[in-house]
Sequence to fold (226 residues):
Amino acid sequence: DSAFYYTYTKYCIEEGKTIASMKTPALMTFWIKPNIDNFQFSYCFGSDEYPTYVNSTYNDFFGFYFSGPYDSVGNYVPGATAYDMQNLALVPGTQTSVMINTVNHGSGYSHNQPHSNPEYHIVPTGSCSSSCGFNEYTTKLPTASTFVIAGAYYKITIGVCNIGDESLQSGLFISKDMRRFDTVNVDTTICENQEYYLEIADEYLTQTGKYSYTYTNLTGGDSLIN
Fold:
């Protein structure tokens, strides 16, 4: 769990936060052998530390750590892009780890703490307020997209941890899907008064230009066609 601790301490140092003790870390490690060239998991992070302890030292967090590629006997595949416990649980479009203090609607001890990335945070109301067992939680977030080698082996370690105390719990909901994200680029020329049938999108194109189509399945963006 050294990478787990590194994620937390790095955040505290960069943000000038007090480094508190890690309590009851829970780690789960498993191996995958993808038959695709890139993938993402989806997840939600929930906690009873919300909203009272936002921007405090009770900053429960988690990590989604990715390593590989390995061959069948556990050696790194030579010449491939190597990952060594790289945290993929990041605020979309940033290098910021997802945790209590980085994804919230504010509040805190004095109830006037500023919010942080609230577009990725949910404050449940009504019947939803107890449906997941935590006070508040993130939206369904994707892990950082990762390119992989089909047929190689990768190690994934998921960890979640209390910080400072053990009285209020946090947890993860992890989607069962491992999704393929393809990008297909089409470069073609047509003459005036002709049309091009883009079969994969079932569209007839008659004008010069750049077109982009994004397919969406039940779990989110699936493939992009340019």
Observations:
- The first helix runs from residue 2 to 15.
- Residues 179 and 220 are 9 Å apart (CA to CA).
